[in-house]
Amino acid sequence: MYNPPPPQPGNLPPPPSNLPPPANAGSYPSAPPPQAGQYGMPPPQAGQYGMPPPQAGPGISLVKDQQISLSKEDPYLRKITVGLGWDVNQQPGAPFDLDAVVFMLGPNGMVRAPQDFIFYNNKTSRDGAVYHHGDNLTGAGDGDDEVVSVNLQQVPMDVTRLVFAVTIHQSEQRRQNFSMVPRAFIRVANQETSRNICRYDLTNEGGMNTALIVGEVYREGPEWKFIAVGKSFSGGLGFLCQIFGVQSN
């Protein structure tokens, strides 16, 4: 068997001069991270992959007529929770019954069909995009008094606006109006993460009237936006149905 002699110092050839510098220990070339929605990847959910749930802050506080892009504030937004709440002054006589309603409007500012009027007797829109969680007869307690869920991805393209309003049931018979409802609010949150995006607090915007448009979620190009409206009307729910084209039976 042939055993070559060990190399002697000075007999080895010098290393090539064109070798790249050695990499740092533990470093490897990295690919760019995948983007949500790329390769069919869904956006991350709170609690998924150890992701902590978001802190439940109030969101951006809006004033009357202020607009905000929901899509820019939350790029992964697909479903929203719209919470409406109010405080009622204690009055003698019949208790208050306030109702939250939604009108799904087309480009002409009218509902496309009676089913686009969402309220306690028609809780789900025909496309399944809007769901009313039910009527709170008393309005007692803190937080939301009534809640509406909206799947923005299911809203038909010919629906451009979702109008959220509050009315007083049997206001004329009970002699009640919004001057007796000193505080009301609307908030919009990401339904999938529970993160509040914005909130609009109203103070006596209703006056002596009996119907109050609180806010609108509307489509502008690829974006969904929200505007704090705070506009009141006399005539109650019947007047709102009239101006938005809901035919009464």
UniProtKB/TrEMBL annotation:
InterPro entries: Stress/Tellurium_Resist, TerD. Residues 1-23, 30-56 have a biased composition (Pro residues). Residues 60-244 form the TerD domain. Residues 1-61 are annotated as: Disordered. This is TerD domain-containing protein.
